[in-house]
Amino acid sequence: MIRIDGAQLRVKRIRQSRNGAFCVADLSTAYGEFKVKDPLLDQFEEGEYQATVWISEIYLSQYIAFGKGVTEIRARLHDLQVESQAELSTAHEQAEPDPIDEQRPVRVAPPKKPVPPPSTAKDFSHFNKGGKPQSGSSGSGPQESTQGGHDGLLDAEMLRAIANRDPIKLDATVERALLRRQTAELGQRHGYRFDAKQQIWFAQ
């Protein structure tokens, strides 16, 4: 973990994504320049932020977009503490690929133990146990319905907070697409505004 004081984040909002608007940032520090594309940025307004940042990883990223190959050094933020905010100076909006659409590295599974070839007796034994897969498949039905009952955009606690116009802090570790939808829901439908210093949503 690296802590850097006096860092500058230039946050830019990209609006042309099919998954909804998202944010990227140029991070300027005494140790160098980095690109930041973490989900937590999607809550921020476009602007220049002076902050203390905690970096958990620095890595090289490569991708192909808009007919060209791009190589950049990225920093993954563990946390940040905003000290001041200013409007972003007018600049040409650069096309950026959506991080959701970037191909994720494939993890190689550990080698499996060799399985002996099935014999005729084993085949018949497996055939006679046909009820077990059926019970497993029927058991998956209630599980799917239970999960479906909890796939709402805002949970009960958030809905109560909205009804009372209480502050709300979103979990930035959830799936990025869900965080974007929650952000849009609070800001556009329920009249909340994000406070970058506290990283909390307040009713206006």
Brief synopsis:
InterPro entries: DUF3275 (IPR021693). Pfam families: DUF3275 (PF11679). The model is unreliable at 120-150 (pLDDT under 50).
Beta-strand percent range: 35-45%
End-to-end C-alpha gap = 36 Å
Count of distinct strands: 7
Globally, the shape reads globular
Radius of gyration: 23 Å
- Indicate the mean pLDDT: 79
Spatial order of the strands forming the largest sheet: 3-2-1-4-5
* Helix content range: 10-25%
Q: Helical segment tally?
A: 4
- Are there runs of 5+ residues with pLDDT below 50, and where? 120-150
Class per helix and strand makeup? alpha+beta
Main sheet attributes: strand count, strand direction, barrel closure: 5 strands, antiparallel
Could you state the order of secondary-structure elements as H and E?
A: EEEEEHHHHEE
Q: How does the SSE layout of this entry go?
A:
Elements (H helix, E strand, L loop, with lengths): L1 E13 L7 E8 L2 E5 L10 E19 L2 E19 L33 H9 L2 H18 L7 H9 L11 H14 L2 E4 L4 E4 L1
Antiparallel strand pairs: 1-2, 1-4, 2-3, 4-5, 6-7
Could you name the key traits of this structure?
204 residues, alpha+beta, 5-stranded antiparallel sheet, two-stranded antiparallel ribbon, 4 helices, 25% helix, DUF3275
Overview of the molecule:
It contains four helices and seven strands, in the order βββββααααββ. With 204 residues, it is α+β, with helices and mostly antiparallel strands. Among the domains are: 86 residues; 48 residues, no CATH class. The strands form two sheets. The chain has a five-stranded antiparallel beta sheet, with no helix packed on it. The protein has a two-stranded antiparallel sheet with strand order 6-7. A hairpin with a 2-residue loop joins strand 4 and strand 5. The longest helix has 18 residues. About 15% of the residues have low confidence.
